[in-house]
Design brief:
The chain is of the alpha+beta class. It folds into three domains: 40 residues; 177 residues, Penicillin-binding protein 2a (Domain 2) (Alpha-Beta Complex), CATH 3.90.1310; 338 residues, DD-peptidase/beta-lactamase superfamily (Beta-lactamase, 3-Layer(aba) Sandwich). Helix content is 34%, strand content 23%. The chain has 20 helices and 23 strands. The strands form seven sheets. Strands 2, 3, 4, 5, 10, 18 and 19 form a seven-stranded mixed beta sheet that branches. A hairpin with a 6-residue loop joins strand 22 and strand 23. The radius of gyration is 38 Å and the shape is elongated.
Length: 602
């Protein structure tokens, strides 16, 4: 019989085993509860966080293509817009410090060697000092490193090193061609978007195609070198060469700036184009802006290009088109006469000339003296249906298709009767349309239609793109299609001579250049006020012209909006004459007559 001492508990071996087993089971149960909680209740969040921290996909932008002006005099390309791409070199000392030996020493040594040799102005000592900051996960060791050196460093697959890309669009000529070029904005990271002008129109051509890089990284974005990368290389954008000549563009801009300032005008705008090919040599507006500092512009209307983005009543610069209709339908000849009494009654309206009654006048004199009654006479003889048909052939109510964004259209809706067989109800509308009132056109459409006068009756396709250039040097020239014939070659020849007479003997005299036959037409159009009524003190002065009769190399339109001067032959014609002297010399155009005599006309 066994005995135990009082106050003590005796534990048998079997009981000890039972207690131990129970403890083990409790511990295992607790572990399973923890596993269940992490795996099933919290696992989705942890897994997502881990993936966010380790697997990343980075958008890689190719280099944006450059934009070039031409220099016709030297046959060279001149940079108009270019990307300045650079990189900041960043190291992660903490990531490298957390590696195990001997890998840590190997990575550190490789990083020091590669960066000190490849990155300009970076010594081995500087890299070592950066890597010694082992509590830091982000240390910049170099700024504004070019693409060439970064590519060399990237090829070494450095761990704990990243290259932050910076791209700045630069316009070396500042304001030159601003409304043609536009600018590039970055509405969100890794996104660059062309705004206005060529930058917007040829966004897809210039930007190329973005690439992708998938890789395992630290939370700070540094590549984990033990993991492989998946790289889809970006495609660089193509360069774009414009038809615009930098010297002509500069001269036009300076001319418009002077007109804008001298006339204290709302704006001044103009364009110069090849009447046969449709190549735009220059296009500008004042006031302008600097695309390098576009963000400082408060009013976005400043960026609009009125040559393409707006329409206006052309006034008397439209009269040559009315004459073209009369000549092409054999309704009139340059020598056809009518009796000008200074005014004409059309329905309940009286249409007057600015210069009063001129007596017996030929059609050439109608243009020389800018007689409203004369174009009313022509339209009346042609007939409303035929006249309207020609205006539609000119494309006045359609876009030209010029390769610039936001092209608007003019309108001839007022020449459409509710009932097509009752056009006589619109007699006054057709009468005023004959001298460019009550209808609207865009400046680019007006210039294109006018080109047909000196291009054997054919309208060209206006454009600013000369060619696309790949980074490998391959050229791609746009297909512009065929020119559209509007009237006959005979009509073109007759009307061209009539317009030369306007410069020789009419209101275009200040555009004349001795020894050359220059043709053109002035125009003044009234603007509407807030109530929709025409005003006497708010006008647009314009001059449209070509040079020369024998060898037409360019057509030109100059306009000034709300000038202080009263007549177009005083505000825009003299500047056109100065431009003519420059252009005739620049294009090396030979004189096409020995002398030119001008009469003093107002």
């Amino acid at each position: 019989m066994s005995r135990t001492k009082r106050g003590k508990v005796s534990v048998t071996p079997r009981l000890r085993v039972g207690l131990f087993t129970l403890g083990i089971l409790a511990l295992i149960g607790a572990l399973w509860v923890k596993v269940f909680t992490v795996q099933y209740l919290q696992g989705g969040g942890f897994t997502k966080l881990a993936k966010q921290q380790q697997l990343t996909e980075e958008k890689l932008l190719g280099e944006r293509g450059d934009i070039y002006f031409r220099d016709i005099s030297t046959e060279e390309h001149v940079v108009a817009a270019i990307d300045n791409v650079s990189y900041d070199v960043i190291v992660n000392p903490k990531q490298i410090a957390n590696l195990r030996e001997p890998r840590k020493s190997t990575v550190r040594e490789k990083t020091v060697t590669v960066l000190s040799r490849v990155v300009p102005d970076t010594s081995a000592e500087e890299v070592k000092n950066a890597l010694s900051k082992e509590d830091d996960a982000w240390v910049r060791i170099a700024e504004d490193v070019d693409s060439k050196h970064v590519k060399q460093a990237r090829n070494k697959d450095l761990q704990g090193v990243k290259f932050n890309r910076k791209a700045a669009r630069t316009y070396p000529n500042d304001e030159l061609g601003a409304h043609l070029l536009g600018f590039v904005s970055s509405p969100k990271p890794k996104t660059r978007k062309g705004r206005y002008g060529v930058e917007q129109e040829y966004q897809d051509v210039l930007q190329g195609k973005a690439g992708r890089e998938k890789k395992r990284t630290t939370p700070n974005g540094f590549w984990v070198a033990t993991r492989k990368k998946h790289l889809e290389k970006p495609q660089d954008g193509n360069d774009v060469v414009l038809t615009v000549d930098q010297n002509i563009q500069y001269k036009l801009e300076q001319t418009l700036k002077n007109v804008y300032t001298e006339q204290d005008a709302r704006q001044a705008f103009g364009a110069i184009m090849n009447p046969e090919t449709g190549e735009i040599y220059a296009m500008a507006k004042q006031p302008t802006f600097n695309p390098n500092t576009y963000s400082e512009v408060n009013n976005s209307n400043t960026f609009l290009n009125p040559i393409v983005n707006s329409s206006f009543e052309p006034g008397s610069i439209f009269k040559p088109l009315t004459m073209a209709v009369g000549l092409d339908t054999d309704t009139i000849t340059p020598q056809t006469t009518y009796e000008d009494k200074g005014s004409v009654e059309v329905g309940e309206y009286t249409i007057e000339n600015v210069v009063g009654a001129q007596g017996t006048q030929t059609m050439t004199q109608v243009l020389e003296n800018s007689l409203n009654t004369g174009t009313v006479f022509v339209e009346n003889k042609v007939g409303h249906r035929t006249f309207r048909s020609y205006l539609r052939s000119f494309g006045l109510d359609r876009p030209t298709g010029v390769d610039l964004p936001g092209e608007t259209t003019g309108t001839i809706d007022n020449l459409t009767a509710v009932e097509s067989d009752k056009l006589d109800r619109l007699d006054s509308e057709f009468a005023t349309a004959s001298f460019g009132k009550g209808i609207s056109v865009t400046p680019i459409r007006m210039l294109t239609a006018f080109s047909a006068i000196v291009n054997d009756g054919k309208m060209p396709q206006p454009h600013v793109l000369k060619t696309k250039l790949s980074k490998e040097g391959e050229e791609q020239t746009p297909d512009l299609g065929d020119e559209k014939r509007i009237f006959s070659k005979e009509t073109s020849q007759k009307l061209s001579k009539m317009l030369v007479s306007v410069v020789d003997n009419g209101f275009g005299e200040n555009a004349a250049v001795e020894g050359y036959r220059v043709g053109g037409k002035t125009g003044t159009s009234q603007k509407l006020d807030e109530s929709g009524e025409y005003t006497e003190d708010r006008t647009i002065h314009s001059f449209i012209e070509f040079a020369t009769l024998q060898d037409p190399q360019y057509v030109m339109l100059l306009s000034v909006d709300v000038p202080q001067g009263q007549y177009a032959n005083r505000t825009v014609v003299p500047p056109a004459g100065k431009l003519n002297r420059f252009l005739l010399n620049y294009f090396n155009i030979k004189p096409d007559r020995p002398s030119q005599t001008n009469n003093d006309s107002d």
